[in-house]
Amino acid sequence: MFFGRKEELSALADLWGKNCSSLAVCSGRRRVGKSTLVEEFARRSGCRFIEIVGLSPDEGVDNRAQLRNFCERLSVQTGVDEEHANGWAKAFDALYAAVNEKRGKTIVFLDEISWMGAFDKTFPALLKTAWDTQFSKREKLIFVVCGSVSTWINKNILRSKAFVGRISCSLKLEEMPLSDCREFWGSAKDRRSVHEMLDLLCVTGGIPKYLTEMRPSLSADENIRKMCFTKEGYLYRDFDAIFTDVFAKTVSDKAKILACVAEEPQSVKTLAAALGCVSNGHLSDSLGELVEAGFLSVDEGLNPSSAKEAREVRYRICDNYVRFYLKFILPRKRAIERGAYKFVSMDRVPGWDSMMGLQFETLVRNNLSALLPLVGMGNTVLTSAAPYVRRGKRKGEGVQIDLLLQTRKSVCIVEIKRRKLIPASVQDDVRDKIRRLKLPRDISVRAALVYDGELAPEIEEDNYFDFLVPAERLFE
Asked: Is 66 helix (H, G, I), strand (E, B) or coil?
């Protein structure tokens, strides 16, 4: 199955219009579909395709193993003699010889390049030299490098002075939008309620691999139980796998940070206090790596009262699966191992509704591009779009807003709710938040309610909200 990614496919296809070769970089979270995107692009291009994947950094894997795998895969796909190179310069020479043997459109795809070059510090420099002296001179060649270890990609390629001016296309894949996620239900998509789809998506987010593991014939409840609450389940096991793959030796440090942020967004200062460590460059670097990996986001929106940057930025989990694992699967691991959830309905698990409400908020924020037109801001230049929190010194002074959209002349307070019945009191809550914001007089204020559930009759009757956005609109 392949859905969406039209902009990314178009960006890659545009490279064929050049008269020279192109170097492209594709990065993003594990399981987000990077390899699948490049493979689909090659399929649609109908050209020669050479794909070599770096070996996972398991025990026993070293530079010699990576080189041997490189040469073996090259031989299998091109028919060249399998001659094991003693270094990456020779390996790239062999690849270029195979590429240059035939004319016509060719795509070379080095996947998991961060694993491939993990054991040789000269790897990036040798790749750059091979590109400059050989591959860049070949017409109708698209050379794609891809990896899940974003810090390696950024340091050694995207932000490296050696590759300045050489990268024709850089793609960072994000989660799939809800409109494309719906397609994973196949022919059953029109027979499933939005509410049921959201149950599953609140756990998986828009991660394609997780959605392919779902069985459309089963209910969301049963899919979640099988994938998350059985010891054989894919999502029960995947957290450890993706963290080992991406962070290797620093897994435990990163997991501790995420565990602290799972409860609520944290600043560097409060996070350091919670971890019992010093607020220094090491902690900031770890947070930056988690952001680059796609697990954390930074709430660095403007202060609506002053239109200046917030004094203290906060880090929050932006990955639905990661938060769900930390808050709902990990604390129940022993019970899951005993098979205690074999016959349990998910909505009977304590804290389920509040957890799904929190997950729904993240899902809405991650689909901001679909939301903006629905709140009258589709063609508006935003100065800030982020959750907003201000701690008050006294009771009644603090304010917390699910999503605050700001322009130079207006703000839009977005309240996000997922309940069986959305009470009329939500209007009073938003009124109070607007009062506490203490905005300048020349700033217009609008209010929007994004919801999944049934609205109390008074909400539509009172006509308080400027925009009422039912969740199904986000799937359009």
From this structure: helix
**Residue 77, class by beta-carbon neighbours within 10 Å (0-12 exposed, 13-18 middle, 19+ buried)?**
middle
Given a contact cutoff of 8 angstroms between Cβ atoms, the answer to whether 30 and 148 are in contact is yes
Q: Give the predicted TM-score (pTM) of the model.
A: 0.93
Please, are residues 191 and 212 in contact by the beta-carbon 8 Å criterion?
A: no
Task: Check pLDDT > 90 for residue 72.
Answer: yes
**Percent with pLDDT over 70 in the chain:** 100
Interval 99-126 mean pLDDT? 95
Cβ burial of 220 (10 Å; 0-12, 13-18, 19+) is buried
d(C-alpha 54, C-alpha 407), whole Å: 45
Classify burial at 199, counting beta carbons within 10 Å of its beta carbon; exposed 0-12, middle 13-18, buried 19 or more: buried
What secondary structure letter does DSSP report for 208? H
Looking at this protein, which amino acid is placed at residue 319?
D
β-pairing, 384-390 with 302-303? unpaired
| E strand residue ranges, 104-248 | 106-111, 141-147, 167-173
Please check whether residue 83 is in contact with residue 71, taking contact to mean a CB–CB distance below 8 angstroms: yes
Helix or strand run (H / E) with residue 404: strand 399-406
pLDDT tier, 149 (very low <50, low <70, confident <90, very high otherwise)? confident
- Hunting for tokens 């191992």 — which residue is that? 337
Inform me whether the pLDDT recorded for 312 exceeds 90.
no
| Confidence bin at 29 (pLDDT 50/70/90) | very high
Q: Report CA-CA distances (Å) from 75 to 66, 143, 461.
A: 14, 18, 70
Q: What is the pLDDT of residue 398?
A: 87
Give dist(CA 404, CA 264) in Å, integer: 17
For the segment 434-458, what is each residue's pLDDT rounded down to a tens digit? 999 989 999 999 999 999 999 999 9
Place of tokens 């050489």: 166
DSSP string of 305-322, one letter each residue: TTTEE-SS-EEEE--HHH
Tokens of 421: 């019945």
